[in-house]
Design brief:
The chain contains seven helices and 14 strands. By secondary structure, it is an alpha+beta fold. The chain has two domains: 142 residues, Fructose-1,6-Bisphosphatase, Chain A, domain 1 (2-Layer Sandwich), CATH 3.30.540; 112 residues, 3-Layer(aba) Sandwich (D-Maltodextrin-Binding Protein, domain 2), CATH 3.40.190.80. β1 and β2 form a beta hairpin. It is globular. It starts with a helix and ends with a helix.
Length: 265
């Protein structure tokens, strides 16, 4: 898929993502907690997630009818196509349910398993982050870049603490304890896609987390890369999209990687 084709597709994707985000914003004003469901322990889902995903699948399917889908809520399952939409309709459901204003819509387009287009819409701030492969990264159409700082002592780090799988909890806490002492602070904000967007625009220096899915990271990681950041798995390799672990950072990437590798088992 050529860069010119992606440039033509991008505005249509942004429009659809904002439509989904608008639905979520509207539903927050009248959300009924009684309609909340659990996919598993601490794993929440609501009718809002499902309906927003239907909006996204319907709109994106009209843009590229030949593309398959990887979706969080299973609206459609078609994961073998050369082109694939990767959709998280509401990244930060727990925040949404509790009225904490930090959640987002995340949509990426994969070509042969690699992200070539990404859009993350942080609904509460009305901020739309986007990028295409070999292009620049933007927030509300203004170019963004990762922070130029390369010192942990100047950095704020974001992560997502375990809430589903606690097998690695001791090692996770050891890693965080070190970073707490070497940085200006740790944050756990609750939407991996928006965390990645915040790395891309320089608000935080690094985001890392394990037990993530492709739809959590595909769009945001591409935006980080096009903003000048580095994205790897916990081994420093490239298996971050489906490998369920990611480090996305500016110039502190190697420092964070070394700390994680020292403590992670």
């Amino acid at each position: 898929m050529k860069e010119t084709d992606l440039q033509k597709v991008l505005p249509k994707v942004i429009e659809i993502v904002k439509e989904g985000g608008g639905f979520i914003r509207q539903e927050r004003t009248r959300f009924d907690p009684e309609k909340l469901e659990f996919k598993g322990t601490n794993d929440l889902v609501s009718y809002v997630d499902r309906e927003a995903e239907k909006i996204l699948v319907s709109g994106l399917g009209q843009i590229l009818p030949e593309a398959g889908f990887i979706t969080e809520e299973g609206t459609v399952t078609q994961e073998t196509a050369r082109l694939q939409w990767v959709i998280d309709p509401l990244d930060g459901t727990t925040n949404f349910v509790h009225g904490i204003p930090f959640y987002s819509v995340s949509v990426a387009l994969l070509l042969n398993g690699q992200p070539v287009l990404g859009v993350v819409y942080e609904i509460n701030q009305d901020e739309c982050f986007h990028a295409i492969q070999q292009g620049k990264a933007y927030c509300n159409d203004k170019e963004i870049k990762v922070s130029t700082s390369s010192a942990l002592s100047d950095s704020v780090i974001t992560s997502g603490y375990p809430h589903l799988n606690f097998d690695h909890l001791p090692f996770y806490m050891d890693t965080i304890a070190v970073l707490m002492q070497q940085t200006q602070g740790m944050r756990r904000m609750g939407s991996a896609a928006a965390d990645l967007a915040y790395v891309a625009c320089g608000r935080v220096s690094c985001f890392f987390e394990s037990n993530l899915n492709s739809y959590d990271v595909a769009a945001g990681a591409l935006i980080v890369q096009q903003a000048g950041g580095r994205v790897t798995d916990f081994q420093g390799g490239n298996n971050w999209l489906f490998g369920r672990e990611i480090i996305a950072a500016n110039g502190v990437h190697l420092d964070v990687l070394e700390i994680i590798q020292r403590h992670w088992k």
